[in-house]
């Protein structure tokens, strides 16, 4: 270690060099990042400007595309489907007309069949005539329309080339095929998977601006205008607002009864979907039940009623099942083949009032969430048949999805049916792939099932799962996405040029700062050298050395404080000498005091003794003693002299000497204190006196003759009685007043000591001890400790009582001497 220190001294660096290096370090740490931050901010401002320009271009492009709505360019025909997308046969209230219509769908009527046949014949004739007259005209108009649209949008894309750092602009269809491009040879190709994911995740009709690896991309999705203005879109926008405002899925879970209700409802829906389709007609499985005579009109009527009740419950309208409805539900489950064990479980829940018994369980925020889940479910079941118990690959789309998709204009054709040249020249607006829409519906149903689990158990998802659902819901209605790519190479070159200029400026500034720092430190060190010389003289023993520094700054203040410190050190050195002398005297007083206190306990047959004594300072004012009064008699004394230190110790010594002098042969303890009082009153200061408890123990008769001179009352405690008895007190302190006043106040008392009984004497330092909250230990805690720790092992009893005291006081310092004396008659 010594060698290492010597090596370090060889490389000693002056303060001047250190300050210069520190200034350079601070400059590099703070100035250079600031310059870098300034360059980044300039780039960000440039990007923001470009983003604002792109927003204007893209908004104009969207309006341009929507302007072709009258020509039905890229428009999805949702006639007869959009406005009823969120309604089903069972969304109405229970009424006889609706029930009869539902039964007619299943069992049929002759009148209905004849009416349908007439309608079919009329439609067939009209369609044949209309097709013959309009076919050629429609084809001609459609071809001209496509050509006009293609050329117009293609020209518009080319106008975007005026944007600074422009790279390319294109329009892609939902499948990822490029429909229009500023580079015509790219039309018909497919964009990269990375770009496709970016375009697909931005599902809301607003501007998105992202940074790719080598470019910036601004894009905006376009949707069919009739969808954007329809009921479904508006309802979804409302749900999305609720999500952003935190109004949906606010609870961690629904109430327990509500979750059980939905377990039953989901089981009912699962069985129902097996035998009825979305329009309320019988499936093949339902037809089999009907042929067997199990699907009766009364059973169908009951199922219809239950379906309506459960549909309302799913929309947040709490319901109560009456007994006959529960009976019908059990009958339906039995007919549908639900296991007996499962049916018994539902019946047990119903009898124990655990399902469909209580209302007012749902909060308004829970109802909003249930409305959202029900609305999405009814929408999805129009277009896809799905179940959590079947594989995703087995989920099938309904005929309504085909109706939705066939509304696209005729130029949406499969790419493999059109040549590359024809695709480019004639400008087909999209490439239709049904699998895209089917996968979107399947993914939406999968996301919905994850969210639906909230109805039966605690939520296990976050808001991102809700946005994922809407991402798939919006997919079938997207007509395409317009995107613009900007190169970032120009931005990077400009940023590097700014950084290089900033670095040159930083180096120039650094050199100037270092030169000024060197001059300043050189001047400052001249004054510091004088302070160093003064420090060396003080170290050599020249206390009070003064240094003259003519500098009106912090160094001048330092010199003044140095001079003041030098004078204080000289003064403190003298105080240390004086303190050392006083400490030596206190140590001598402590040794004397320890010498006059009893060194061992008296050996008395049938009695045990134990003492705890802890002075606050080196020389304490508490005093205890055992005095030989005569044959079979032992004097016991505990006293507390006012004050602490040497003076209290001297008074304690005088009290001990006088008490031992007058105690010999006297059984009358009061007489002894009366003889001691004049001695202390005469030979001590008026402010010095002592409280004393003095008793003479008659060992043969087991009696205590005692008196008290203003001291704490003695304590008698017998473990069998578990009761504290206080000895009589009173009197005035010894040495405080003349005998004419003192003697009348001092009385002699007698008390017998029973076998197994404890006598405890103490000073006020025990009961008045305080903790850090300034609370006193107190007599109550002291009495409880005596009762709790009383033992024939008097030393162990002493230690436990004192431990309880110290635990109460904690880290609070003692404020008085502490003494406790225990006498036990064995």
UniProtKB/TrEMBL annotation:
InterPro entries in UniProt: Bact_Sigma-Reg, HAMP_dom, PPM-type-like_dom_sf, PPM-type_phosphatase-like_dom, Sensor-like_sf
GO BP: signal transduction
UniProt superkingdom: Bacteria
Record keywords, A-Z: Hydrolase
Cellular component, GO annotation: membrane
Domain PPM-type phosphatase: 606-825
Keyword Transmembrane helix: no
One MF term in the entry's GO annotations: phosphatase activity
Pfam families in alphabetical order: HAMP, SpoIIE
PROSITE patterns in the cross-refs: HAMP (PS50885), PPM_2 (PS51746)
Signal peptide: none
Record-annotated HAMP domain positions: 522-574
Cell inner membrane among keywords: no
PANTHER family to which the protein is assigned, alphabetical: STAGE II SPORULATION PROTEIN E, STAGE II SPORULATION PROTEIN E-RELATED
Name the UniProt record assigns to this protein: SpoIIE family protein phosphatase
């Amino acid at each position: 270690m010594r060698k290492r220190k010597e090596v370090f001294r060889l490389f000693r660096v002056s303060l001047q060099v250190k300050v210069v290096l520190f200034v350079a370090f601070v400059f590099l740490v703070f100035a250079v990042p600031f310059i870098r931050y300034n360059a980044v901010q300039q780039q960000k401002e440039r990007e923001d400007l470009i983003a604002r320009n792109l927003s204007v271009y893209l908004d104009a492009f969207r309006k341009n595309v929507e302007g072709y709505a009258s020509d039905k360019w890229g428009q999805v025909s949702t006639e007869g489907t959009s406005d009823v997308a969120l309604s089903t046969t069972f969304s109405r209230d229970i009424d006889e007309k609706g029930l009869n219509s539902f039964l007619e769908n299943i069992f049929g009527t002759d009148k209905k069949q004849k009416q349908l046949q007439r309608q079919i014949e009329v439609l067939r004739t009209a369609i044949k005539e209309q097709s013959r007259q309009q076919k050629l005209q429609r084809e001609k108009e459609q071809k001209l329309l496509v050509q006009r649209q293609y050329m117009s949008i293609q020209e518009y894309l080319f106008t975007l080339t005026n944007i600074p750092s422009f790279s390319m602009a294109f329009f892609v269809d939902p499948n990822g095929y490029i429909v229009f491009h500023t580079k015509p040879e790219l039309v018909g190709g497919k964009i990269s998977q990375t770009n496709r994911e970016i375009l697909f995740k931005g599902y809301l009709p607003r501007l998105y601006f992202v940074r790719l690896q080598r470019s910036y991309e601004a894009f905006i999705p376009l949707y069919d205008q009739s969808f954007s203005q329809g009921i479904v879109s508006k309802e979804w926008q409302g749900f999305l607002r609720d999500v952003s405002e935190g109004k949906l899925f606010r609870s961690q879970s629904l109430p327990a009864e509500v979750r059980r209700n939905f377990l039953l409802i989901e089981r009912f829906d699962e069985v129902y979907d097996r035998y009825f389709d979305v329009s309320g007609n019988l499936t093949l499985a339902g037809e089999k039940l009907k042929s067997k005579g199990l699907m009766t009109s009364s059973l169908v009527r009951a199922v219809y009623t239950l379906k309506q009740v459960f549909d309302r419950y799913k929309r947040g309208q709490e319901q109560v099942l009456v007994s006959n409805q529960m009976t019908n539900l059990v009958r339906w489950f039995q007919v549908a083949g639900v296991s007996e064990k499962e049916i018994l479980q539902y019946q047990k829940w119903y009898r124990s009032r655990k399902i469909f018994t209580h209302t007012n369980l749902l909060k308004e925020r829970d109802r909003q969430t249930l409305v959202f889940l029900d609305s999405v479910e009814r929408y999805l079941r129009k277009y896809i048949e799905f179940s959590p118990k079947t594989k995703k690959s087995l989920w099938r789309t309904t005929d309504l999805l085909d109706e939705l998709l066939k509304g696209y204009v005729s130029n949406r054709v499969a790419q493999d049916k059109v040549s590359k040249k024809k695709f480019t020249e004639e400008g087909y607006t999209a490439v239709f792939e049904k699998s895209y829409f089917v996968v979107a519906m399947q993914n939406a149903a999968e996301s919905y099932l994850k969210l639906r689990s909230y109805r039966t158990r605690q939520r296990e998802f976050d808001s991102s799962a809700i946005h994922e659902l809407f991402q798939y819901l919006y997919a079938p209605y997207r007509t395409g996405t317009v995107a613009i790519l900007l190169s970032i190479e120009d931005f990077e070159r400009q940023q590097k040029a700014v950084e290089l200029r900033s670095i040159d400026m930083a180096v120039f500034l650094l050199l100037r700062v270092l030169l000024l720092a060197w001059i300043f430190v050189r001047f400052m060190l001249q004054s510091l050298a004088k302070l160093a010389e003064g420090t060396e003289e003080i170290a050599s023993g020249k206390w009070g050395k003064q240094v003259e520094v003519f500098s009106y700054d912090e160094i001048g203040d330092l010199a003044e404080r140095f001079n003041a410190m030098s004078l204080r050190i000289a003064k403190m050195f003298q105080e240390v000498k004086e303190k050392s002398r006083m400490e030596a005297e206190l140590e001598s007083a402590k040794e004397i005091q320890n010498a006059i206190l009893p060194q061992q306990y008296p050996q008395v047959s049938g009695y045990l003794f134990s003492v705890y004594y802890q002075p606050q300072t080196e020389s304490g004012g508490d005093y205890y003693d055992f005095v030989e009064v005569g044959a079979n008699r032992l004097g016991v004394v505990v006293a507390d002299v006012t004050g602490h230190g040497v003076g209290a110790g001297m008074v304690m010594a005088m009290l001990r000497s006088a008490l031992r002098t007058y105690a010999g042969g006297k059984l009358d303890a009061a007489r002894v204190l009366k003889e001691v009082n004049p001695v202390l009153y005469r030979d001590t200061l008026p402010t010095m006196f002592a409280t004393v408890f003095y008793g003479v123990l008659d060992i043969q008769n087991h009696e205590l003759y005692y008196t008290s001179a203003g001291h704490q009352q003695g304590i008698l405690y017998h473990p069998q009685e578990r009761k504290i008895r206080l000895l009589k007190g009173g009197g005035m302190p010894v040495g405080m007043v003349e005998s004419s006043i003192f003697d009348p106040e001092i009385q002699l008392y007698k008390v017998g000591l029973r076998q197994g009984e404890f006598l405890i004497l103490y000073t006020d330092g025990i009961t008045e001890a305080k903790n850090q909250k300034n609370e006193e230990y107190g007599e109550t805690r002291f009495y409880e400790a005596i009762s709790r720790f009383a033992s024939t092992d008097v030393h162990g009893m002493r230690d436990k009582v004192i431990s309880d005291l110290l635990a109460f006081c904690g880290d609070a310092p003692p404020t008085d001497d502490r003494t406790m004396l225990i006498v036990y008659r064995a």
